[in-house]
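Problem: given the chain below (650 residues), write out its structure.
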Amino acid sequence: SIMMYWYRNVVSSHISRCELNKRKTAAAATTTTKSETDTSNNNNKHNPPIFEFTSQIQLASFLERYGEQLLRPAQARYQHESAFEKEMFEFYTGLQSTDSSIGGMFHSYQPLSEGEDREHDEHIYTQEIDPYILFVQCRLSKRKSLEEDQSKAKRIFEELAEEMMHRRDVAFFALEAVNAKSCSGWFPKMSDGAIAVIRVKRGVDYSVTTLETSNTSDRSFWDQRQKRVIHNITTDWNDVKRRTPHGLFIPTEYTKQEDIVSNLTKFAVIHTTPTVMWFDKSRVAQLAFPKYRTIHAVLFIDMALGHERSKLPSSTNHVQNGWPENLAHSPETERLLLDQQRAIEMFYNAALQYRSHHKDDDVVFLIVPSSETRILTTFGVDLWTPLDEALFGGVEEKKSESSEDGIDHSTTCRSESSPMMPIMVVTDASESIGKQTRRYYICSDDIFAPSDAMFEHGGAMKSFIDEVLDDTAVQFVRSEQTQLKTEHIATKSNVTVVTGNTFQSLVMEREEEHTMLLMKQSTCGHCKRFSIFWNEFQAIIQALNWSSVINVCKIDVSKNDVPHPQIDALDLPSVYYFPAGSKETPIEMTPKYDKDSIDAQYQYDEGLSWVTSGYDVVEWMMKQGKLDLELLGSLDANKANSIEEDITMQ
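Solution.
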C-alpha cells in the first residue's frame, strides 16, 4: 500500500507538471493570462487516492492520456510451501515466462492442434486479459440541502479508496459536478454520492510461431507447442465513454451509516475480485467465501505430480524451455501437465466471458490445487476412493452390487480410462438455505469435449456455466450408498428410509400417496428425541391400515441432498408433508399455534417441541384438509376403534 501510494504521488506530480506546461503553452498562444495560483488550485485535483474532475468527458480524456501510467496490471502473489509448488503455480498460470505488464493469465506457449501448420503464423490474434477497475463517485456540489449526507458519502468513499490503495489495477475518481446532468451518463437522476464501477477492457495482440529446439531432450515436450509472440498490449479507454457501468451503488437506499459501510464493502469486494483466483488459505479464502457470495465456479487441478523428482544433470536443467525444473519428465506426466494448463486457460477465458456478459451476477471463479484436501472434501471431490478401489481390486465388485439393487452408487468423475483431474464444480446457494446447495460437475473428459463455444471464449466450460445458471444442467445429488433393495429399505419401525438418489422414486413419483418426510441428522439430539414420536406416528398409520394412503419416511440430511426447491434443512428436525397430487408444493410442519400470534411466539421459537406423541402429528396432518377422510374410514373401521390397544401391544 505504501509503495503504491508513493508511486501514484509521483505519477500525479508528473501529470500536474505536464498539464501546467500545456496550460502555459496554450495561454501564450492565445495571449490569455491566467494566474499561477488558480492553476495550482486545479492541479490539486490530481492527488491520490482520489482524482477529481468536473465531467465525464474530462475523466475519459485524462484516462486516455495518463491511464497507463496511473494503473498497472495486478500481479498475483501467493505463499508457496516448496520450490516445486511455486514452479507448478507459475507454469499453470503463465507467470513463468510472461511479461509482467500483461497481468492476469496469459500463457506464452500454446498447444499445436492436430493437423495444424507448424510454420510461422502471421495472423494477429487477440486475447482478452484482466481489466482495469475504476470507481467513480458523483458529487453534486451545489446541493446545499444534502451537504451533510454528501459529506458522509464522500468520507466513506475516501476510506474505501485508502483501503484499496494496494491494488495496482484499481483507481478511484470523483466527479465534482455542478448539476445532475454532468453525472447523467453513468448515474440515474438525483444520485448524489452514488458510486459506479467501470471495467476497462484490456487485450494482448500476438502471433504464434514454431519453436526451434536444438536439444533433443526438449523435443518430446516442445514439438507439440508454439510460442506466442506479443505485438501489443491494448487498453480500450474509449470503452469508458460508451459503456454503461458494470455496477452501481446508491448510498441513499440505506438509512443507517453502518448499512452503507457494510454494503459498500460487499460491493467493492465483488467488483474488485480478480477474474480468476488461485486458492490460498491466508489471503484468497476471505475473498472467496464470505456469506454473501453464494455462487462458485471451482476448477480442481492436479498438483500431485511432484512425487517423481527431476534427475536431470544440473547443466541441462536450464535448457528445458519452461518445463518445471523439479519435475521429472515423462510422456504421461507431460500429457497430464499440459491438460491441466489447457483447462486453466479455458477456465480463465470462460470467466472473462461471463463477467463481460453478466455484470449484475456475482460468481467466484476459483482454481484449487489438489493439495487443498479440505476444499476438495467440501465440494464433494473424492480422489481417494478410486485409488483405494484400484489398489484393492474393488471396482468390479462394487459395480456388480450397484446393478443388482437398481440404485446409482457412482460418485462424481470416477473413470478408469481418464485422470480424475481437472474437474470443474459449480455450486449455487442463491435460492436455498441450510444444507440444500445445488452442485454441478463437469469431468475431465467433458471439459475437453467439442463445444459450440470457441476455446478463446471458454469452450465446454462456458457452455457448462451457461447451462447451470439457465437451470438446464443436471444437478448432482449427494446420496448414501445403501446396499438394500428399494423394496426393503424400511427400518424395524417400518419408517421408509429415503436417500438422495431415491427421493424422486419414493416421494415425488408416488402421486397417489400422501408422504410425510422427517429430515434429521444422526448426531442431532433433538432429532433422536423426535424419532420416538415419529415411530409412534408410523405405528398409528399402520394400526389404522392407512399405509396404502400415507407413506411415512425419513432422510438423513447430513449424508443426503433433498432435490426439491421448496425444501430447506436449516432447522432440524423438520417435517414436510407432500400431499397426493401436489408434490411440488409441500407443507412444512409448523408449531401447533399460529406463528403470527403474540401468545404463540415463544412456542414458535421452540420448533417442533410441541409434538409429544404420534397423535399430535396425525392431528396436524388432518387439519391441513388434504386427506380423504371417507376413504381412510373405509379402509378398516375395526382397527380404528382399537388403535390404543394396538399401539400398546407394539
